[in-house]
Design goal:
This protein is mainly alpha-helical and 385 residues long. The protein is 57% helix and 3% strand. Strands 1-2 form a two-stranded antiparallel ribbon. α1 packs across α2 and α9 packs antiparallel against α10. The longest helix has 27 residues.
Length: 385
């Protein structure tokens, strides 16, 4: 892996002074009376320059995240043909997009780093699969789709007592972490300037509006699926899900994720190398069926997460590293979209057009974000995560 200097992660310049212990960063510009920190996200009590922007510019990333989250969650991996893209955005946008905005804003208002976003994303995944659509506990959930043949594989890892498939739990929750929440957030933030990237986009009124949109969207999906499936999880299943959600939220809000973490002296590798662990997790997650396959998948996921966490503590870790780590799962999902069927049968032309559209959108988003960061200020360090 290359160890030489990365052109995007250069030293502070003359117009951006740095202190010996807290170098100036493009994510948090230094001023004469307040030097910036390379490892500490922006706190809420520091007014953002973006607050003085016109309303249209302040809301643009919010709207973009509202639309990108449902598309990434359901369309990016081939789940829908191209003629279903718009209905997905309309009907699932309030729920998926609302959750992504609330999670992102919660972390940025707290001045927390990416572990908070990942843990909140996991809480959302469990909430979504266990309480909202209850796909985690309904064995018939996929029977009217082209994934009905996956039922036997799911039942091979059934957890006694709670009666849910650990394989499906990993798939559902993992996809919500990677596709619904993390990839859309990191892509939208990478398009923004460093003065807005780690700052909140919404105040309390805006958060209340988004919270109401998310709640109404979730209630709509719950009622729609309940009318269609006629399934309701048992009290034990619902209580267990709520307990896991509360535990994940509590872990996400721990003060440790808002503390300053000094960087190691070793330099981080080129950003593209950061995506390799994510690729290996995707390729190795289905190597073996049943419980041995689950052990392999969980071990790969834990190893990849630990490796990325370690790399993020190295010197030179910047927003391009974050972009690759956060969006590699989306790129892999788009690559495999050509070999998976959509939920509902579609004409070969519509299915292929959807897969091609997924490729175009994914390449445009990732390529545009990478190009935007290449043209950004030389220093784009972010907090160790």
């Amino acid at each position: 892996m290359p160890t030489g200097p990365d052109p995007v992660d250069g030293p502070a310049t003359a117009d951006r002074p740095a202190t010996a212990d807290r170098p100036a960063t493009a994510d948090r510009p230094a001023t004469a009376d307040r030097p910036a920190s390379a490892d500490r996200p922006v706190a809420l009590d520091r007014p953002a320059t973006a607050d003085r922007l016109p309303l249209r510019r302040r809301l643009l990333p919010v709207i973009a995240l509202l639309l990108l989250a449902p598309w990434a969650a359901e369309c990016s991996w081939g789940g829908f043909a191209i003629d279903d893209f718009l209905p997905v955005l309309i009907f699932l946008g309030p729920m998926y997009g609302g959750a992504a905005i609330l999670i992102r804003e919660t972390a940025r208002h707290l001045g927390a780093s990416w572990p908070t976003i990942v843990l909140l994303a996991a809480a959302f995944g469990v909430l979504q699969a266990g309480l909202v659509d209850q796909s985690l506990f309904n064995p018939d959930f996929l029977d009217d789709t082209q994934y009905a043949d996956t039922r036997a594989a799911a039942e091979a890892t059934l957890v006694p007592g709670l009666e849910f498939s650990l394989r499906q739990a990993l798939d559902y929750v993992g996809n919500h972490i990677v596709l619904t929440i993390c990839a859309p957030i990191v892509l939208i933030e990478s398009f923004l300037g460093p003065d807005r990237r780690l700052r909140p986009w919404l105040g309390r009124p805006g958060l209340l509006v988004v919270g109401l949109i998310y709640l109404l969207g979730s209630l709509f999906i719950f009622s729609n699926i309940y009318q269609d499936k006629g399934f309701l999880a048992s009290p034990l299943q619902l209580a267990s899900t709520a307990a896991v959600v509360l535990a994940l939220v509590g872990a996400a809000l721990l003060p440790r994720w808002r503390r300053h973490h000094p960087r190691r002296t070793r330099r981080a590798p080129h950003p593209l190398w950061v995506g390799l662990p994510v690729v290996l997790v995707r390729l190795g997650s289905d190597l073996s069926p049943g419980w041995p396959g689950m052990a392999i998948a969980l071990a790969l996921a834990a190893t990849a997460g630990g490796l990325i966490a370690y790399l993020s503590s190295l010197s030179g870790w910047g927003q391009r590293h974050v972009l690759v780590a956060g969006s590699a799962g989306l790129v892999m999902a788009a690559a495999f979209a050509y070999v998976v069927p959509p939920y509902s049968p579609a004409s070969p032309a519509a299915a292929l057009a959807g897969d091609i559209a997924v490729t175009v959108v994914t390449v445009t988003l990732f390529g545009g974000a990478w190009w935007r960061l290449r043209r950004a200020s030389p220093t784009v360090h972010v907090g160790a995560s």
